[in-house]
Amino acid sequence: MEGTRALEQIGQTSLASTPSGLPPSRPVRWSLARKVSLALVSILLSTLLLAGFFAYYKFESVYSSLVQSRYSFVVFTIKKQVEDSLNLGLALRQIRQVQDILEREKMRDPQVMSVEVYDFRGEVLFDTDRGAIGSKAPPPLIEALSGSATQAFGITDEDALIVGLPLINNLGKVEGGVVLRYPSAYIEHGISGLLLQLGKGIAFQLAVFSVLAVAGLYLLFGRVGRKLDAMQATLDAVITVGGRAEPGPGADPFEERFAEFVAKSHEAVEHIRDATAEVGRLDRLQ
Amino acid sequence: MTLDSTRPLFIRLLLLAFMVLVPPVGLLAHGALEEFAQGLVPEMDKKGETVGRDLTASIERAIGHGIPLTGLYGMDDFFSPVLSANPEIRYLSVTDHEGRVLFLNGAAREMLEPFYTVTDFEVESRRSHKSIIGDFIDLTQPLRGKVGVVGHLHVGIDQNYVRGRLLEIAVDIAVVTLVSLLVAVEILLFVVTFNVTGPMRVVGMVIDKTRRGDFSSACGAGADDEVGRFVHRFNAAIRYADDLFRRLEAYMDEVKSAHFDKSVVEQVGNIESRVRFLFRFSRSGKPEVINEHQATDIRLPLFLFVFAEEISRSFMPLYVRDLYAPIPGLSTEMVIALPIAVFMMFIAAVSPSAALAASRKGSRQVFLMGLFPATIGFFMSAVAYNVYDFIVWRAVTAIGYALVTMACQSYIAQVSHQQKRAQSLGVYVGAVLTASICGTGIGGVLAERMGYRATFIIAALLAVVAGLLIYRLMGSAQPRTEFQTPRKRQLLALLRNWRFSALVLFAAIPSKIALTGFFFFLVPLTLLQDVSTDLGDVARIMMLYPIAVVLLSPLAARLADQTGWKAGLVAIGGLIGGAGLLLPLYSSDLDTLTLAIVMLGVSHGLSASPQLAMIPDLCWTECRNMGQTNVLAFLRLAERVGSVIGPLLAAAFIPLYGYGGAIIALGVVVMSMSAVFALLSFAYGSGPHIEAELSE
Question: Going by fewer Cβ within 10 Å, which terminus of chain B is more open, N or C?
Fold first, then answer.
């Protein structure tokens, strides 16, 4: 206890028995260690959440773009095959093998929900879900046809993600489009492992390092508190009981100055009491 | 550990913060990256298989038409578009049955063929065979002809692609950790000074008075912690002595006025004189409360506020580009540059009035006054409809920014002693630069994930938090000083000092042109020209500027003090900054631009402190006549001309020379002006210049 050693009360004086006028000590409601622990643990929590947030979204972004690029390649393959036939002068709705191509691609990958080809007006001409043939494609798919001829477009549709490309004949005219739907749950499933890992990691690291932070802070501020308690106890004792404050060998300059303060305060109190007693004695003289 | 000194306690806390923040984030990142790699590799394999399957089908169709595998033509053209559209696939090759490479695109034959010729792929099944060759994952699929397997198609996936993505996450997390550490530093510094060293320093001041027998002062009320309890007890001791004295005083007054014996009255008078000679008590009837104000009081709110402003640094021109609406007579680039220029112009216009207001109304009130327009500005910037209203909201934000920053500077100037003023202003510069690192770094990453508008909302929230801190923690009774308003004649006299004018014109202004024209305006636009660069990359690269300034500023300040070679350092700084902007002459790649940003940081790190330190010597007479603070304020005001010109000049260059050319053109301007200053610096000499006074 460096602080306690550093400042000790030595001896007693004639006024030792005089009651002190010092009020009772104020209770500590929020200790320094508790305050700083709260700040540090909050920073730790924010850091872990932010790091986890960035890691998760980066992974989500890379993973979904990788999946999208795989399905874009499938769509691109279909587009090439359909456009080869278009370039032979066939009308889109007349290319009967398109239905086989679409069904073959869907069979290859169980994650594919559907593949469809629609014309520039939005009428579905071929679809792996044969019941949908003849229906109208949603407006966003028709709007997407005006985009890049080689860059796949991506659209979200309720529980499905859609990737597609426009079909263009050799005159550069957009004949329609080909789109592939795959479940958004596929992406969610792919990244759920990371989410779980991050959740567990954050909880574990927070628990372990919060304990470490609190322990470290109690150790650090415990010393500060003990030093202050020792100085306060010396002050109380010297003022109430008497004696003098003597800084110990490990005392820092602040404690040395404080010891002088205690001595001066005690001197003042003693002097004023003596003076009061003297005035009283003079007052009683008749 | 001395209780009234911040450093020992703060260093211990900092070490603890480092131990508590860095390892958990590192462990979290490690776990996440492993999971990331595990999740990504199967998807990459699927992609490789899909590509391989399609290519295999095409090649098998050709073989099916009777073309031998060795006789296939145009395979390079067949592979090239696939490779360019799929960056994670590094090579495609076709080998014959013996593993000899027939066609290859994207890798060296010598690297692959030795592996292929000795490997039995055993790929009679339809599934592909996976091997690791150096940095590649080789997915092999059989090519079947009428007679069975005639060769193999190899799809080479780049393992570095996964590593690259992992590195991106690691860098993101490193940025978060750095920012968290810096925020922790600010918060812990605040906690330590506000709760421990600040109150204990006041205790120390009162102790020093009491040691001399002066019991006229007590400390301000402490918090409800150990320090607060100690302060309460400490004050109780002083009040106890004061109370005893008051009672004695009353008793003596009573005896002196009522006692019939003159000798008793005389003796009591002697006692009173003795007590009053030995001890001093307050004349007001109770000890006066001392509340010491420190420069660090304002550091955390200032940090948060500048953080809020800097959060949009890396994407400001990009956001303006999204909000673009034509303004008649102005090019697109000029419209994009306009909000930055208007922001700077309003800061310059409002700053002098803000300084005056801070001296009259007190820093706390002006800080809170400034937060109002700033928060509205941030919030409305988030919901801006187009560039027209955005310019208005940036102007509103600038008014707030000027009020807040001038309130902080004024507060620091008021609470710091003359000898410690430079040290206290270091608190301001430190908070601004740390906030700049944090804001720039985290802003870009946040905008990338959440969008520009959401990031502006976060800026508004940070400004509100800064306001709450000021409102809750700074007492309404603020120290005030009389503000010495310089007359216009004095300012003109300052401009007649050729050394000062040259410093403004050829050092301070070009430095700001480079900062706002190049760093604020051109860097985000130019970096995003490269499709492989995202907003997070822009932010991370831009972070290098404040980091360089933070690292070099203290060294430059020390060097300037030790050598006295201030003008030389300013000149070298200017030339380095100019040379950095000329780097695109040699190469326009990302690394060159990054180096240019670092050189700008080095330039400003070298020249900023010596530039200010030169003023007392250069303007010795003017500092005496109108005050050093006013001379420095005028320098800051004058250099804002460069801040306004910078983005407009850069925008004017873009249609003429393109983005790279605009940087070079700006570099020519900055370099020319810096070269003039470098030449003039030889005539600056050293020590105070008092010619002006002698000539008067």
Answer: C
On chain A, the residues whose CB falls within 8 A of the CB of B43 are: 63, 66-67, 70, 190
Are residues A258 and A230 located together in one domain of the fold? yes
CA distance readout (Å), B39 to B120, B171, B430? 29, 19, 42
Domain termination residue (choose one: B463, B483, B503): B483
> Are both B310 and B371 inside the same structural domain?
yes
- Domain end point (choices A169, A193, A217): A193
Q: Is A214 on the interface with B (CB under 8 A)?
A: no
Looking at the DSSP bridge assignments, the partners of residue A182 are: A161
Full residue range of the structural domain in which residue A10 is found: 2-47+202-284
pLDDT, one tens digit per residue, over A47-104 is: 899 888 888 888 888 888 889 888 998 998 899 888 888 888 888 888 888 898 899 8
Q: Are B410 and B366 a contacting pair, CB within 8 Å? A: yes
Nearest CA distance, A208 vs chain B (angstrom): 9
Quick one: tokens of B161? 């692609």
Percent of chain A with pLDDT strictly greater than 70: 92
What is residue B423's predicted lDDT score, i.e. its pLDDT? 62
- A39, A267 Cβ separation under 8 angstroms: no
**Boundary of a domain, candidates A171, A193, A215:** A193
CATH for B549: 1.20.1250.20
Alpha-carbon gap, residue A274 to B212, rounded angstroms: 20
Position B305 scores a pLDDT of 93
- CB of B169 within 8 Å of a chain A CB? The answer is yes
Cβ-based contacts of A40 with chain B (< 8 Å) = 16-17, 20, 184, 188
Strand, helix or coil for residue A274: helix
A77 and A183 fall within a common domain:
yes
B171 within a domain of the structure (yes/no): no
Cα separation, B245 vs B249, whole angstroms: 6
Token readout for A256 is 């040395």
B291 touches chain A (CB under 8 A): no
Domain of residue B557 covers 487-696
Contact A31 B9 (CB under 8 A): no
Chain B contact for A26 (CB, 8 A cutoff): yes
Whether B132 and chain A come into contact, CB under 8 Å, resolves to no
Tell me the shortest Cα–Cα distance from B418 to chain A, in angstroms. 25
Q: What share of chain B is helix, strand, coil (3-state, %, to 5)?
A: 75, 5, 20
Query: How many Cβ contacts (< 8 angstroms) between chains A and B?
Result: 284
To the nearest whole angstrom, how far is the Cα of A129 from the nearest Cα of chain B?
A: 22
pLDDT value for B566? 82
Nearest C-alpha in A relative to B246: A272
Q: Is the CB of residue A158 less than 8 Å away from at least one CB of chain B?
A: no
Q: Which of B164, B195, B225 is the last residue of a domain?
A: B164
The answer to whether B1 faces chain A, any CB pair under 8 Å, is yes
Return d(Cα B429, Cα B85) in angstroms, integer: 48
- Complex ipTM value: 0.78
Strands ordered across the beta sheet of B129-133? B101-105, B89-96, B148-158, B136-145, B129-133
Low-confidence ranges of chain B (pLDDT < 50): 692-696
Alpha-carbon gap, residue B251 to B337, rounded angstroms:
78
For residue B573 the two structure tokens come to: 């700084």
Beta bridge partners, A126, equal A117
Domain CATH for A113 = 3.30.450.20
pLDDT tens readout for residues A242-280 = 777 777 777 778 888 888 888 888 888 888 888 888 888
B449 to chain A, any CB pair closer than 8 A? The answer is: yes
Q: Which residue has the tokens 């010619």?
A: B691
Q: Are B78 and B101 in contact (CB under 8 A)?
A: no
